[in-house]
Amino acid sequence: MNRKQISRPLISISISLVTLLLIVGCVNNLKYTAPLNTDLSGVWLIDQAASEDVIIFPPRQKTNSARNGNDDSGPPANRSGKNAVQRAGTPPQSRANRPSRFDKPPVMTATQMTIEQDDLSMGIAYPGKVYRDVDWGKTDRLGVQVTAGWANNSLIIHVDDGIMDYLETYSLDPSGKLLRIELQVNGKGGKQKYTRVFTRKSGV
Predict the structure, then answer these.
(1) Where are the domains of the chain?
(2) Superfamily for domain range 3-59+102-202
């Protein structure tokens, strides 16, 4: 094996570790009290021109098995058999009772949302989607780790289901009329970033 063959996986591992350390550092330094001058409450409409379309199923890297003709590039939740259970690390009956990688943050595809923020939490209603409750701090919902808090005037939400993790950053512009949401998706297919921009239609 030559140096090039060795260096590529090492570079990939190094990038993944750096990304993980940055996320962990960011999440661990959050404050669990909302800034007095930042209120995300209101009805928000998507600015399509300023927003990026989100790929619902991030592409995954082909494995040796897939290159040999066995398509194993699909989402792990759709696979079955002994190997799938061993990779997931949990028995099928417990996985059936917890959110899967398909339960992505609704804001990824929402075109409108209504936010109600208070001192301890935030509720978000999306037309045609499940209502979302976000509590400041760390919570465990059926095996899904959720951390939500504030860094300066930005709200950071980190969701990790053990297969994929999502980092959401909500930032108001100085006028309070534009809400910029940075989305980062991390999984076996690598890291992907998207930007969604909403305009405030009205306050709550």
Answers:
(1) 3-59+102-202
(2) Calycin beta-barrel core domain (2.40.128.20)
User: Which among 77, 97, 98, 99 is positioned nearest to 88, based on CA atoms?
Assistant: 77
CB atoms within 10 A of CB 198: 26
Count Cβ atoms below 10 Å from residue 109 Cβ, excluding itself: 14
* Cα 100 to the center of its chain, rounded Å: 12
User: Which residue is listed with tokens 């009205």?
Assistant: 202
Helices (H), the chain: 3-28, 64-67, 82-88, 92-95
Rg (CA), the chain: 19
Contact (Cβ atoms closer than 8 angstroms) between residue 169 and residue 147:
no
Q: Which is it for the CA torsion 133, 159, 130, 107, positive or negative?
A: positive
Indicate the pLDDT class of residue 83, thresholds 50, 70 and 90: very low
Q: Is 67 left (phi over 0), alpha (psi -120 to 50) or beta?
A: alpha
d(CA 188, CA 63): 11
Check: CB of residue 203 under 8 Å from CB of residue 41: yes
Average pLDDT, the chain: 75
Q: pTM for this structure? A: 0.68
Give pLDDT tens digits for 124-152.
Answer: 999 999 999 999 999 998 889 999 999 98
C-alpha–C-alpha distance, residues 174 and 34, integer Å: 16
